[in-house]
Structures are given as structure tokens and as C-alpha cells.
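Data deposition worksheet. Section B asks for the primary sequence of the deposited chain exactly as it was used as input, without tags or linkers unless they were present during the calculation. Section C holds the resulting structure in C-alpha cell form. Section D is free text for depositor observations; keep each observation to a single sentence. Incomplete worksheets are returned to the depositor.
Section A, Depositor: J.P.
Section B:
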Amino acid sequence: MSHPFDEPMIYLFLDADDYLLSRRLSALKAAMGDPEMADLNITDLAGNQTDAADILYHAGTMPFLAERRLVIVRDYLGQLDKRMGASKGTESAAYTEAARLLGDITDLPPSNDLAFVDKGIDKRRHLWKGFRAENGDVPGLAQLIADKQVTLEEMNTPDARQLAGWISRAAKDEGIAIDGQAIQLLTNFVGPNLRQLANEMQKLAAYVDGRSIKAEDVRLLVSDSSEGLIWDLTDALSQRDGRKAMRSLHDLRRGDANPFYLLTMMARQYRILIKVKDAMSRGSNNENVIAKEVKESPYPVKKAMQQCRGYRMDELMAVLDRLLRTDFAMKTGADPETEIEVLVAELTQPRSGDRR
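Section C:
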């Protein structure tokens, strides 16, 4: 967004993704010119250590040896909103503070910008909608935004459906070529962690050295963060802990784990459990020795050694058979999400007595 240098700008960054927010604030700081002079004209205020008078003082101070000044206020509006919500009336100190802030922030010097970084403002309450005070009506944030006196920028983390598009656009902005399969694999491996996605793309771009990033490059260089979550899920299954298992399943879905990919990973984990259980039945209890025998790395073997103690071998084989039946159902018209939930619910059913 270009900056009209003949007037102040008041920004509201509401519920912003941390990575997108850091890039936006960096852009505002870069627009101030000489970094040494810019640093002298940037004030960063913590919401629990400031108030309306302090904010207006800093936002009203003229720049020092520079053309512009930037004041960033973090987590203040949400706290003020809660204080107002807990007040008994508009004559309270919280409402008086809100009236002063909302009434005076539009009178900043043309050289100064003010950025509020906040989460959790209730749009049903007075800070957002406005209110009537002793000296007249006080416009809320919604009215200031509608009047273009405050610029609202919502930089939410992309959801599962938007993530691939975000990766594609981010790669294009950075001049990085990446094919569709690689993008999908990145969404599966990393999920909606935008900072990590950006770092992984830079790492991949350096590795491919000018050519397009392929799926095999992602498999080689990017660790699958969902694998740890899969182990959390199978750990909960081995403990017959339905609540923990459903929470792990929710975390995987939030990271855009495709149901078919999820089932494949679960099957892989249980195959490891079976191999490790078999090795342990022959008397081995050293994870490094077992890792060499079953041709897996020590970490999953260590996890499997802990989990397979919760099963008999015939139970592990029965779980694998149940996974295969789920796979067949999903591929022949059953709803994949529902099938996964039913599977997890069945696998966490408690057993009668100790049958290990």
C-alpha cells in the first residue's frame, strides 16, 4: 500500500498472522528512509504499560531529524475493550480513556503514523460500535474505519483451502519457480506456518539453483512436521485415550492433513509398531540395534518401543486390517472425514481387563 506523505496514517492490524504482520511492519519502517534516523523515530508501546494519554503524546511528537515518525501500540485496544465491558457505565475511567483516544487520534501531525496491533476486539461492544458520552457521541472504531480515518488491515493466516494459493503467490513474489505437486507437499509437510514455509522455499530455491522446485526436492529437504503429530495420535490410540486422540486428529486437520494422506501415515506407523514388536519379542531392547534391524531411524523406533507395549501382536494386526478396510471404504464413496473419525473412535475403545 502506498503512503500519502501529506497526511498521517492510522492502521489497525487486527488478528494478524505473526509472519504477515512482521513483514507489514518491516515495510512501514523501510518506508521511513535512512534506517539510523528511522530508529530514532520509531516508538513501540506495550498495551499493559501505556494509556491513551501516553499514546497520544508519542503519536503527537514531531519527528527528530527525519520526515516521518511511527508509533506501534501492541495489545492495547483489546485490554481497553475488556475494561469497558467490565465497566458499569460510560462515566467509568475506561470509557473516559476510550473517548479521549477515539476523539483525538484523528488530529495527529501529518508526519506521524500510528499502528495498533491487536487481537480479540469484540465487535458487539462500544469500542467498536461507538457510544454516547457526557460530552456527546463518540465514534467507534467501525465508524473511523468507514470514514477512512483508520485503515483496517486483516492479515489472517490462510486456511487449508487458501494455503496452496498463498505459497504460489509468495513464490512468484520471490521469483521462485515451484510446481503444483511440490506446493501440495509443502502444505502437507509444513501446514499453515507461514514463516517456516517462507524459509523452506528459500532453502529449496538455493538447492535447485534456478530450476523449478519439484516434489522430490521437498521430500529430500523438508521435514514432515505432521509426522510428529501422527505419533501423538498413535500414542493416544495405544493408551486408548479418546479425548487425546481426537485432539491430535484436530491438530492434524488444522494443518491441512488430507484424510488419505493421514490414513497412509497411520498405516506406516502401525507397520513400524509391528516390526518393532516382532524384534522386541526376540529379546532385543536396544533402540539402535532394532533400528538397524527394521531399517528405520532411531526416533520412530524409540516411539514405537513405547507404544507397542500397549498391544499384543494380534491386536496390531487387527488394527492394520481395520486401516485397510477404512481405506477401501474411503475409495468407494464413503466420506473420508467421517471414516477417519469413526476409525479413531473405534481404536480408542477400552478393553476389558489387562490383555497386554
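Section D:
Residues 259-281 form the longest helix (23 residues).
The first strand starts at residue 9 and ends at 14.
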